[in-house]
Amino acid sequence: MKIREVISHLELLAPLHYAEDFDNTGLLTGSNQTDVSGILITLDCLENVVDEAIEKKCNLIVAFHPIIFSGLKNLRPDDYVKKAVVKAIKNDIAIYATHTALDNAKDGVSYRMAQELGLENVKTLIPKKGIIKKLLTYVPSKSFNQVQETLFNAGAGSLGNYSECSFSVDGTGTFKGNGSSNPVIGNKEERTTVQEKLLAITFLPHLESQILKALYNSHPYEEVAYEITTLNNSYDDIGMGAIGSLKEPLSLTEFLKVTKNTFKTGVIRHSVPGLKQIKKVALLGGSGAFGIKKAQQSGADAYLTADLKYHDFFQGENILLCDVGHYESEQFTKNLLHEYLSKKFSNFAILCASAQTNPVNYY
Length: 363
Hints:
Order of helices and strands: HEEHEHEHHEEHEEHEEHEEHEEHHE
Radius of gyration: 25 Å
Largest sheet: 6 strands, mixed
CATH class of the largest domain: Alpha Beta
Shape: globular
Helix content: 25-40%
Structural class: alpha/beta
Distance between the termini: 45 Å
CATH superfamily of the largest domain: NIF3 (NGG1p interacting factor 3)-like
């Protein structure tokens, strides 16, 4: 099995197309053509994780956080980033990072937080906008079913719980090929009139190359006329955070106790809202202060995230703001990736790193 095969499955779960612009996801070291000897999953790829990979004969580390985040001007092993990178390169170990691609994925980081907390009816807290694309193309009526079916098979027309969605309109097309053309219908240098159908079909942007390949392979015309536009609609299956409901409402004290036990955190920094019970809960793994207003607008009684600043807590008058810690909020990502890859490669050993990578301690 090659590294590229593992990557292809990881990018089905969390397409890199949806990573944030500031991020550095994907294959950071190594070649995707290398045979995999073992896979080690970690939240952070520090030097001690690379040591563990060497010991356990794993030449692929799947990390959540990218160890290379900003540009490296040299590879002298004089800080924690370069020490890990240099050791990985010396020992032919590939490092792959998912980070915000997995943050934005359906059933990603925040969804796993919700699962651990036992929430029901979970939805995306901040759905992304402007990512749904629409293809318009013009197909001879006799070839319409073939083109439509090929596009469906390539992933077009599938959004949320629905698939094979499209819209068509009958019409009349005209064209005139020059002396170098090879028209399938009609003759060179003569205007041809054809009964056509306008086919409108939506798709997600990470599928664009395969959608266009399917269009060209199935369409009978020498020159395929089409247009692609981006819709401004939001899409609930891609975005940051999650929101759901507890099976039964809990008192403020009970909820804090359950949260502390679930996330195994040394301390919860929280606001003091004017609430007596907690039922609806929003969550966002990692630094999530930017999601406070959306959690409030969504009617959440509590919002669990990390890295809140002093002034962020002043927004917690009508909502319980809980900072459970950055590592603690994302810790279940290792389990998520381990379970996913173990199902995809059931006959291959997938290991979770035991090395400690949380830089924060509590006294």
